[in-house]
Amino acid sequence: MSDTKKAGASYQVEVKLKADYSDAEGLAALGLLHALGVNTAKEVRASRIYELKGPLTSAQVQQATRDLLCDPVTQEFRMINGATPVLNGANHWRIEVWLKSSVTDPVGETVRSALCEMGLASPDTVRVGTVYHVTGKCGRNQLEKAVARCLANPVIHRFTVNEAPL
To answer: Is the pLDDT of residue 77 over 50?
Structure first.
């Protein structure tokens, strides 16, 4: 990938706790899923996902993630690309919850301001979402109904439920 600035460039970065750290947000989400009858969910890990659009390079996004968005002691990050994943037979699910584009994202605006203060080019937009990685033999329809009831507010959020790649 070229590191030249592109006005319409779009990057997604996922920041998650390292595996050896307890995930309180994931445990809470697991409890909510169980309360709604999704008892086949065995584990949930939560993470943040950042979408940055504008005149930034991949290297600048990685620098911003290391210096601003990620605690290197407890967290790790990865750039998300559009590669076609190998599906896993419905044992691992990836749920993304984002504010709708018509809803102001105050965390995204704060990140955008902080990037400017770091001396980086100002992104056109920064959006912040939550990713839930669910492990367990769950059905898509069952998960979608549960997410709409306890992990997202359909009035202000959009969400996707997909099999996670291997």
So the answer is: yes
What is the radius of gyration, based on Cα positions, of the chain? 17
Q: Is residue 82 part of a domain?
A: yes
Give the Cα separation of 166 and 155 in Å (integer). 32
Confidence grade of residue 45 (pLDDT, cut at 50, 70, 90): very high
The label of the residue with tokens 């749920």 reads 95
Residue 157 lies in a domain: yes
Report the C-alpha gap between 153 and 71 in whole angstroms.
28
* Percent of the chain residues past pLDDT 90, beyond the cut: 81
Domain-embedded: residue 60: yes
What total of structural domains would you count in the chain? Answer: 1
- Token pair, residue 2, equals 């070229």
Q: Give the span between the Cα atoms of 98 and 159, in whole angstroms.
A: 6
> Which tokens go with 100?
């709708």
Q: How far is CA 4 from CA 54, 78, 87, 112, in A?
A: 12, 20, 33, 20
Q: Give residue 2's pLDDT.
A: 46
